[in-house]
């Protein structure tokens, strides 16, 4: 039986593996269907991780993490986890081929991913002017014009954030009404550098070898089409939570989750199920930043060490 099963190989999972093995656990395995690294490996530039002054691609940034974590005995198996179940006082990790392994404790760090719009040009320029995180990438557009697609709280809040960095922000939403809270809408209206286009849709994201340079947009009331010159666009239309491993055969969830499917945890990353911990973007109120995911993983691992010691 494993001391700890870690599901997910991004910054949260790797940090958890590092702290768990360095803390003395012998049987620790991280399960990830592909190579470790996580969502950040698709980022073209990362410059806001404390202590790393050099601007690196997400892929290059994550390479030394693997070497460091495996040095202390963390094992990695390329297996896709279907489900985690509670059995007596331990857990059963069930894989897609229906094989399984038992573990005394589990850290789930499967994260999530931004929803994509499917607009023509989005995939072509993803990471080259198309982003889903203003906190991560907004600084690259200092004193430049950008656009934001979306109508929820995140889209409006990120637009307000970008207005403090960029020369102009154009917020594009296909409906006249926003889904965001009234307070956030009022804050948006006070920002002089934000122009709101509703009801509009983006028909194409345009660019060249240097990246995004414009948008083709359409007014949904009169059908008029026009073009918008921008340096970047932030697609903020929602987030997919990878919580399927928590779903049980009867449709219930292994631990308590909120209305969006994020796991509820305390400051120790503990769920309401003893021995089950959640780290990274899967947890409720995650900031969705690499440094925060790494912190979550470390906290979860330290909590596992305490849990195992108390349940001997």
Secondary-structure topology with pairs:
Layout: E1 2-7, H1 11-22, E2 28-31, H2 58-71, E3 75-77, E4 81-87, E5 90-95, E6 100-108, E7 112-114, E8 130-131, H3 134-137, E9 145-149, H4 153-163, E10 168-172, H5 182-189, E11 194-197, E12 200-208, E13 211-219, E14 225-229, E15 232-235, E16 239-241, E17 276-278, H6 290-310
Parallel strand pairs: 1-2, 1-6, 2-3, 6-17, 8-15, 9-10, 9-15, 10-11
Antiparallel strand pairs: 4-5, 5-6, 7-16, 12-13, 13-14
Helix pairs in contact: 1-2, 1-6, 4-5
Question: How would you explain this protein's 3D organization?
Answer:
This protein has 312 residues and is α/β, with parallel strands linked by helices. The chain folds into 2 domains: 185 residues, FAD/NAD(P)-binding domain, CATH 3.50.50; 106 residues, FAD/NAD(P)-binding domain. The chain has 6 helices and 17 strands. The strands form 4 sheets. Strands 1, 2, 3, 4, 5, 6 and 17 form a 7-stranded mixed β-sheet that branches. α1 runs parallel beside α2, α1 packs parallel to α6 and α4 runs parallel beside α5. The longest helix has 21 residues. The model has no long low-confidence stretch (mean pLDDT 94).
């Amino acid at each position: 039986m494993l001391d700890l099963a870690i599901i997910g190989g991004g910054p949260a999972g790797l940090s958890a593996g590092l702290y768990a093995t360095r803390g003395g656990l012998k049987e620790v395995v991280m399960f990830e269907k592909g190579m470790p690294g996580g969502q950040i490996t698709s980022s073209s530039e990362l410059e806001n991780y404390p202590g790393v002054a050099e601007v690196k691609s997400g892929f290059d940034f994550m390479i030394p993490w693997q070497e460091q974590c495996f040095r202390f005995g963390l094992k990695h198996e390329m297996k896709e986890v279907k489900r985690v179940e509670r059995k007596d006082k331990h857990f059963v990790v069930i894989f897609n081929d229906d094989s399984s392994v038992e573990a005394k404790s589990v850290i789930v760090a499967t994260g999530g991913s931004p929803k994509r719009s499917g607009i023509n040009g989005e995939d072509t320029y993803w990471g080259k002017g198309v982003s889903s995180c203003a906190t991560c990438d907004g600084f690259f557009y200092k004193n430049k014009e950008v656009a934001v697609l979306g109508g929820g709280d995140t889209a409006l809040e990120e637009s307000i954030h970008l207005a403090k960095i960029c020369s102009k922000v154009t917020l594009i939403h296909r409906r006249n009404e926003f889904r965001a809270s009234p307070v956030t809408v009022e804050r948006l209206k006070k920002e002089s550098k934000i122009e709101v286009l509703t009801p509009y849709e983006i028909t194409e994201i345009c660019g060249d070898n240097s990246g995004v340079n414009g948008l083709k947009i359409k007014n949904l009331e009169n059908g008029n089409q026009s073009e918008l010159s921008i340096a970047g666009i932030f697609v903020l239309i929602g987030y997919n939570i990878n919580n399927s491993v928590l779903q049980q055969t009867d449709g219930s969830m292994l631990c308590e989750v909120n209305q969006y499917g994020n796991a509820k945890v305390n400051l120790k990353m503990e769920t309401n199920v003893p021995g089950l911990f959640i780290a990274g973007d899967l947890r409720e109120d995650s900031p969705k930043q690499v440094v925060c995911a790494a912190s979550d993983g470390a906290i979860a691992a330290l909590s596992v060490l305490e849990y195992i010691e108390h349940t001997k």
